[in-house]
Specification:
Elements (H helix, E strand, L loop, with lengths): L30 E5 L3 H15 L5 E4 L20 E5 L4 E5 L5 H7 L5 E5 L7 E6 L4 H6 L7 E6 L7 H6 L8 E3 L3 H14 L4 E6 L21 H9 L6 E5 L12 E4 L7 H11 L4 E6 L7 H9 L7 E5 L6 E8 L3 H10 L5 H6 L3 E4 L13 H17 L1
Length: 394
């Protein structure tokens, strides 16, 4: 169940819910249209950039076919199919005969980190302008597309066209390279990708019913304060903002100085808490931690964060028990949000299933014991003795 509680001015009807929308372009979060050059030169430049960045980032390219004649539909599309899939063994091919809307493109490119677009045919959120002398007229026709130019490349000219200077008031502050300065161009994109790394927020899961324990696990005092506050204070060393995930009725019991994030995807357990966090801040990554792992320490968090891979949907620890990902001590990247929603639409509410069936970076825990859950009174007594022994020995 998804609840939707937003304050509205009295007497004013809102047709749609107030949702935080991810910041994306036509295709993805980080996209550049390359325009102003012959299409073959755009393809070659895109190939150089993608070859350099693809070992670290998932890169994509968007273009338009140059076939001037009407071509027959391929395969079964000619028979009336709306979609045809072919496993090409070394790649996968989907052919559509239906019109694709903007939302379809965003869905298809959601898993990518960088999208380069042939700007001679399609626009993008940011632009790279190539200055060719014999393409002046063509570029002038597209001057209205120059809404967010971030890089200018000189091909066979020594200076920028005057109409480009007029269209880009801040052109003198932009990097300007020769088209053959490939390494500088690649370094530009590398720097942009580093800058685009999503900020990391913390989410401490405290909304469980604690039925097996018999009382609220998040309020157990292991180290001089309730575990929910102890864990939140620990995450503050690593995260921009830290929230206690809870049920709506629990908010009034949270101490001052701690931010809460109530579930808006209710009845889904930890999966609902994760979705609720992304619903609130879809452009942030979330370090999600259960409140029932009292042995967690800085070594485990340091290792997780130092090995974070924003190109994956998540970075997680591998369970020493079954080898599967531990979803509740995991960094969930923004790109995991649409993936998780798709799993929910198919009737799945298990965050571990999302991690298993997608590109997840899995780490071996440095100390598997720190991932121990405390779920029952017997667990409580066992871990309590371990902690007291550890404190006594130090």
């Amino acid at each position: 169940m998804i609840s939707n509680e937003h304050n509205q001015p009295e007497g004013k009807h809102k047709k749609h819910a107030s949702l935080a929308r991810p910041i994306t372009g036509n295709f993805g979060r980080n996209e550049w249209a390359i325009l102003g050059a012959p299409c073959i030169n755009i393809k070659l430049l895109a190939a150089d950039v993608i070859a350099a960045l693809s070992p670290q980032y998932k890169c994509a390219y968007a273009d338009t076919s140059h076939n001037d004649e009407v071509i027959s539909l391929p395969g079964r599309l000619a028979s009336g199919a709306v979609l045809e899939y072919t496993d090409q063994l070394n790649n996968h091919q989907f052919n559509y005969s239906t019109d694709l809307k903007p939302v379809n493109f965003k869905q298809q490119f959601a898993g990518t980190d960088l999208v380069l677009v042939n700007g001679n045919h399609q626009p993008a959120k940011a632009q790279v302008v190539i200055i060719y002398n014999n393409k002046m007229a063509s570029l002038q026709k597209r001057v209205e597309q120059l809404t967010n130019v971030e890089l200018i490349l000189l091909a066979d000219v020594a200076d920028i066209f005057d109409f480009i200077k007029e269209a880009i008031p801040n052109w003198q502050q932009l990097p300007i390279y020769r088209l053959d300065e490939t390494e500088k161009i690649i370094d530009f994109f590398k720097a942009k990708m580093l800058q685009s790394k999503p900020k990391l927020n913390g989410l401490v899961l405290t909304g469980g019913q604690s039925l097996r324990m018999g009382h609220d696990k998040s309020t157990i005092n292991w180290f001089g304060k309730e575990q929910r506050y102890y864990m939140a204070d620990l995450l503050k060393e690593y995260c921009d903002e830290v929230y206690l995930s809870c049920r709506a009725e629990q908010q009034q019991d949270v101490a001052a100085g701690y931010q809460t994030l109530p579930d808006t995807f209710t009845g889904l357990g930890p999966f609902g808490a994760i979705l609720s966090a992304f619903r609130e801040k879809p452009d942030s990554a979330w370090l999600v931690v259960a409140c029932d792992m009292p042995l967690l320490g800085t070594e485990t968090f340091d290792h997780l964060i130092n090995n974070r891979n924003p190109s994956s949907i998540a970075t997680a620890y591998e369970s020493a028990f079954d080898g599967f990902p531990e979803p509740l001590i995991t960094i969930w990247e923004p790109k995991s949000y649409p993936v998780s929603l798709a799993f929910l639409a198919q009737g799945y509410s298990c965050p571990r299933k999302v991690l298993i069936n997608n590109d997840t970076t899995l780490l071996k825990p440095l100390n598997a014991e720190e991932l121990t859950n405390v779920n029952t009174p017997e667990d409580f007594e066992k871990i309590k003795r371990q902690i007291h022994q550890k404190i006594a020995s130090t």
